[in-house]
Structure formats: structure tokens, C-alpha cells
Amino acid sequence: MQANTGIVKTGFEIDLNPSTLYQMSETEKARFEEESERMRELNAQSNALDEYIFLIDRSYSMSGTFINLAKEALMLFIQSLPYGSRFNVVSYGSSHQFLFEGERSVQYDDQTVTHAINEIKQFDANLGGTEIYKPLEEIFKKPVADEVHNSHIYLLTDGAVLNAEKVIDLIKNNCTGKSRLHTFGIGSGADERLIKGCAFSGKGNFSFIYQPE
């Protein structure tokens, strides 16, 4: 790849000009569709239900292209989930919000998907700084539904946190059995130690999208 392009360890490039209205490129879409296909394959391997929880960084630094990329990817992921599975979306910054309050996850059906997509379209990068520990801690404290066989958590962020080791330890202590945590680091500000450490501790995968020089 040339030095003036976005460098992505998963093999795709993005336009990082925040002054333009963002539309996901074909290469980006292919990458996220690949992840979505992996989700479907995991479900096909078992008759039991799987759970998918998406943590989306909505801190101020995600403004512009980054938040639009995150929204496009999140909607693609959700629309790829199998009916009958369970899911939720957690927005975080200085504070955090569960899209579906009360439960760790809800059943995937026409009503919950429509509500989720409509809400995600309205997401903005307006939640302050980046605090990852507290939303993860709340997720882990909530009981997993009895019918869930595998639990997958997807963490997306463009930043770094001061308590990275604490976050990594939290994941390591809670991602046991059939629980997995996967990470997406967006931009040059994403902390490589955090992104890789969380994925390794969570027995999951990680991806990086680097901002061009």
C-alpha cells in the first residue's frame, strides 16, 4: 500500500476525510460482511442461541467519519444476525447507555431490529471522553439468558484509556467458557496495547483501521 492511504491490518482502506458525507466503500463493506458471515457460521455450528453485544464508542473524538463508519458497520452487523439470537448495543463515552435497558440482551426479531436500526441512525459522537471499564463491567454483571450458548462482545473505539490493564484484566476474568470479545481500533489514536490486549484476553479477533498521514 502507498504511504498516503489508510492502512488497515485487516486489508481494507477507508476515506478519512470528515468534511465529506461518509458512505461505506465496497472494500470496507466487504470486510464487515466477512465478519457478519463469520457470525452466521458460528450460529450454524450449533442449534443453541448465540448472543451479540456491540459496544460503540460515541466519545467526542469519534466525530465525523469515524462515527459514520461505526454506525454503518453496526447496522450491517445487526442486519446479519440470525432470527432468534439475542443482541444489544451499548453506547459509551464518559457515560454509557444500553439501547435495550434492563436486560443484558433481547431477542432478535422484527420489532427489536427495527427499533435498533432507527436508534443507531440517530447516534452522534456526543458522550464526552472514553470510559470502557464501566460499560463492560455492567455487561458482565448482567446474567446471561439461560438459552444462550455462546456470547460474543464487539468493542469498537478510536481512543486510549488510562486504565487499560484494568480493562484487560476485567475481560480476562469474565470471558471464560464460551464467551468471546472482539475489537475494532479506528484511527491513529487507537491504543494498540488496548485493542490487542482486550482481544487476546477475550479469546477473540482484533482489527485496526489506521488514519493516513
> What is the CATH T-level topology?
Rossmann fold
Q: What share of residues is helical? A: 25-40%
* CATH level 1 name: Alpha Beta
Give the strand content.
15-25%
Biggest sheet architecture: 8 strands, mixed
Descriptive report:
The chain is α/β, with parallel strands linked by helices and 213 residues long. The chain has a single domain, classed as 3-Layer(aba) Sandwich (Rossmann fold), CATH 3.40.50. It is built from six helices and eight strands; from the N terminus they run E-H-E-H-E-E-E-H-H-E-H-E-H-E. Strands 1, 2, 3, 4, 5, 6, 7 and 8 form an eight-stranded mixed β-sheet that branches. Helix 2 packs antiparallel against helix 3, helix 4 (133-141) packs parallel to helix 5 and helix 5 packs parallel to helix 6 (192-201). The longest helix is centred in the N-terminal third of the chain and has 19 residues, at 26-44. The two termini are 13 Å apart.
